[in-house]
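ARCHIVE CARD
Drawer: 12
Card no.: 0347
Subject: one protein chain, sequence and derived structure
Cross-reference: see card 0346
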Amino acid sequence: MKKVNLSDAEWKIMNLLWEEAPRTMMQITNALKEETGWTKHTVMSFLKRMEEKEALHYEDGEKARLYYPDLMREEAALLETEDFLDRVFQGRMGMMLNTMVQQRALSREEVAELHKILEQAETDFEE
C-alpha cells in the first residue's frame, strides 16, 4: 500500500472521484464551487499536486482530461486512521477508544456496533 497523505482539500476531490469517475476538472470545480469557492485554477493546482502524489491520474478525453482515482477509499481511510492514531494516541487504539468512552463521544448504537466488530475480530483470530 502506497503512503499518500491527503490534505482536507484533496479529500474533497477524492470523495468526488470515489463517488463517480472519471470527472473533468470543470466537473470537479462546479461540484465544489458552492462549498469551497474554488476557481478552476485552484482545482488545477490540487489535481497536479495529487497526480504527483500518485493519488489520481488523468487520461485525455475528447474535450478535456478525465481524472480517475488511483487510491482506493479504504486505503486512504486506513492510512489516515493510522496516521491519526500515531500522532494523537501513540498508535494505541485502546487509548483512543477509552478517551471517547470517557468523554461520552460514542452513542449506545456505536458502542453496540464496536462490540459486534470486536466479537467478529475475535472469531476471525480463532479460525
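Annotation on reverse: DSSP finds six helices and two strands in the chain. Residues 57 and 68 are 5 Å apart (CA to CA).
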